[in-house]
Amino acid sequence: MTTSPAATGTSRTLPDHVGVVVIGAGLSGIGAGYRLQTECPDRDYLILEGRESMGGTWDLFRYPGVRSDSDIFTFGFTFRPWEGDQALADGPGILQYVKDTAAEFGIEEKIRYSTQVVGAAFDTGAGVWTLSVETPSGPAELTCDFVVGSHGYYSYDAPYDAKLTGIDDFAGEVVHPQFWPEDLSLAGKKVVVVGSGATAVTIVPSVAGEAEHVTMLQRTPTYIAALPRRDKLAGLAQRFLPEMAAYRAIRVKNIAYQAGTYAFFRRFPELGKKVLASGVARHLNAEAAADNFAPPYDPWDQRLCVVPDGDLFKAIKRGDAEVVTDTIDSVVPEGIRLSSGRVLEADVIVTATGLSLDVSAGIALTVDGEEVDLGQEFMWRGAMVTGVPNYVRVIGYTNASWTLRADVTGVLATRVLNLMRERDAAYVVPEPDGELRPQPLLDLASGYIKRSAHQLPQQGHRRPWLITQSYPIDRRQTLHGELDRELKVVTRAALPGAATASASSESVA
Predict the structure, then answer these.
(1) Which domain holds residue 190?
(2) Quick check: bond before 464 cis, omega within 30?
(3) What are residue 237's phi and psi, to 5 degrees?
(4) On the CB side of 395, how many CA atoms lie within 13 Å of its CA?
(5) I need a surface site. Which of 243, 268, 350, 352 has the fewest CB within 10 A?
């Protein structure tokens, strides 16, 4: 009989102490585990996962068509190639890739499932974290030297509630993508998807062939670009180059493309608007592009949405779907009444209205008994937080694949840990040398970020406190930066207990 990894991970007892704890067994957590065991083989570690299985986002979201809106070659791990030429991978494929990676490198053996971290308290006198966790057997505690927070940035339990007026009067079914029912049938039904972000533009074409009709209702348009589902150059590279060489070549090409297009849109926003509008017009027409796909902001003020092979535009052109730009007056029993007076009839309303940020993942964070307000702190190199020793927090890029930044952070964590070993440090904490002018950590005007900006640490106006949003720059600085000049290093000999013990020893002598 074979025992599933989830069951095995749940049944294993927790140690009293471990060197490093990684919180979260999603893409970032598995990547952190790989970095720890390859770059810091002298450190033991565990990955604590609150859910019953690994995968994070890719295990949680099960709505139709769920996929990444970043190309999988840069979204995948640096150390394990993505097979095939599919550029925009689907959710089940990404989840299997995560599981296969964890199995191949023995990382799954380090995971403890159904172990929710609810409190993390650091004691500077001892240089140790005490973690409070909830397990199937009840509350427990363990200590560790270092924490890597790889638990994402949004609430898994409570998506954003747009509080649509009259929603309780709706006679049909209300569904949120974060909790998509497995047995939901849309055959022959009229569906209204409220929202215009990545989730909405994924769901609409995915259910358009099943439902009688699908309407994407948006208050504000989003910039949408059609990209090929498959990467032809990737296929050629995989055909003629060794596997890892091909993977690296594809990644370099795609990283350069991401950086170049982002720089173009930010430097030439008006020209960028015309390029994006012409892309929509090639699939639909100029009028549709102007009415429903022309946001009142510049490209990349909010994250750009992509649709593989223009599937959203194709569904609209076939007449299976439509986009309506208007505001909601109220939900009525038969559907949604708009401010214009039109009623969108619906049997199912999908509230793709966004995420609810939860930067701390419900973890009560304290240092020497004082609660840490992350919103009042600064992030060093986009990874460590002022006032919080021995703590690395994974925050991805806003303009490129999340995993690129996550891997840079994982490498940085191992460099910090190795520095601590060399200096026999009890703890390290970033401290600015001079005043910092606070700036928002994430440079997007998206609603879900603006609503929760107070939860996020801030960045400064200069390096290493300024996040560049550039993978090549971050990678170079992470690999070669002189960390001990930027961190306060407290050795074990400098701890109060060590001084007392030393004095006691001298007294006895």
Answers:
(1) 167-229+275-351
(2) yes
(3) -60, -40
(4) 25
(5) 243
The CATH number that applies at residue 183 is 3.50.50.60
470 vs 408: CA distance, rounded Å: 11
Same domain, 343 and 427: no
CB atoms within 10 A of CB 71: 26
In contact, 154 and 167? CB cutoff 8 Å: no
| Residue 455 token pair | 């939860």
Distance of alpha carbon 63 from alpha carbon 339, whole angstroms? 29
Size (the chain), residues: 509
Which residue has tokens 């909010």? 302
Judgement on whether residues 324 and 472 belong to the same structural domain of the protein: no
Residues 209 and 320 sit within 8 Å (Cβ to Cβ): yes
Residues 420 and 285 in one domain: no
Tokens (6 digits) for 188:
């022959």
The domain boundary, picked from 307, 324, 351, lies at 351
Give residue 333's region: left, alpha or beta (phi > 0; psi -120 to 50).
alpha
Same domain (yes/no): 187, 325:
yes
The structure tokens listed for 444 are: 């997007």
Q: Tokens standing for 192?
A: 């209204």
- Other C-beta atoms closer than 10 Å to the C-beta of 207 total 24
Query: CA 71 to CA 64: how far, in whole Å?
Result: 19
What is the tens place of the pLDDT at every residue in 455-506?
Answer: 778 878 888 888 877 888 888 887 777 888 889 999 999 898 665 444 333 3
CA-nearest of 411, 397, 395 to 481 is 411
How many domains in the chain? 2
Do 41 and 65 reside in the same domain of the chain? yes
- Does residue 280 lie within any of the structural domains? yes
pTM for this predicted structure: 0.89
Q: List residues bridging with 44 in a β-sheet.
A: none
Residue 295 half-sphere exposure, CB side, CA atoms within 13 Å? 23
pLDDT digits (tens, 9 = 90+) for 78-110: 999 988 778 888 999 999 999 999 999 999 999
Among the candidates 351, 385, 405, a domain finishes at 351
